[in-house]
Every structure is written in C-alpha cells, then in structure tokens.
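Human: Respectfully, please carefully check these tokens:
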Amino acid sequence: MKNKLIVFEGIDGVGKSSLARALVEYLRNHKIAAVCYEDTENKQEGYNLIKPFIKKNATIDASLLFYLSSAIFKSRRITELLQHYFVICDRYIYSTLAYHKIRGAKNNLIINYQKLPILSPDYLFLITANEQMRIKRIKARKKIDLDDLKTKKRGNLVWKTEQEYKKYAPIIIDNSENNYNVALNQILKILAKKISN
C-alpha cells in the first residue's frame, strides 16, 4: 500500500491537532507506519524561528511569500517522509492561502499557487465544530491567543477563513462532539473506502 498524505485544515479550536494525533495512533496500532508532520519539526529552527518576526513586521504580501516558501520546504520534507510513513499534517498550504486571501493579499500571488512545487494531499479534510465546542476547546488550552477567542459570525474574519477553506473542495468532517472518536470514525470510513478502491 502506498503511503498517503492526509491534511487537516480548519479554524482554531475545531480539534485538528487532536484528530491528527488520534489518527496517527490508530494507524500505528494497526501496524501502519504513520507520523504527524508537526512532530518532525524543530520549533526553534528555520522557518519556525522567523515566523514571529514575519507575523509582527511583514506586509500581508511579504507574509504570503514567506509562508509559500515555507510550504514548499514543508512539501519537500513530506515527500521524504512519505517514503516510510503515512503523513498526517495539521494545516498545509490551504491555511496559508485562506489566511492571506481574507486579509487582502494580492490575488495573482494566490491564484498561481498550483504552479508551485507543492505536493497535493491524497486526502484534504476540513474539520468543523459548533461555536460552543470550539470556544470550549480554545479555553482549555494552556496558552491562549486572544485572536483565537473571536467567535465565528457570518461575515467576520473567522467565518470568511472557514468559507475560504471550502473553495479547495475538502471533505468536511464535523467534530462538534465532546468525544473525538465520532469524527475519527468518519475519517477512517472515508480512508478505508478510498484505499480499498
């Protein structure tokens, strides 16, 4: 069986990270070599070291170019990992595109992303959750960014970001239950169906 790149996208608090870890654990328990890409990164090196400076100082177009460059690097690393593992990715290029598009980045920089040397995922999931559950999860975190606590309301940036994700034709998974197993089981059914075809 060929290893797969599985991407989880979604706004903050929907449970992407928890689902990614749960999926990796499930695959490993079933003798399938799997890794969460974020666990392979050193948060104190390379692009990750520069991100706080970019977030604070760069124009939106400069930020987009930086994050596109980071996505190319990430894609190359994922290609290497796929030789040995299923790779589960908590956010990928679609987050970069959605975030920058709704904040006014130039369309010509976003429209041409498909020409970049970035590996397309085998599965792209958009994880969603109702607002009550999403905010509850954010408040339970050890470290909270105040921007994360902004509620999703029709027309605001959080809502627009989620709408932007939908333009990339993801498989939408509702993760509103208190127990991640409901969403995980939906994902596993989709993976089993497509892998067996």
Remarks:
- The beta strands are 5-9, 34-36, 86-90, 123-128, 171-174.
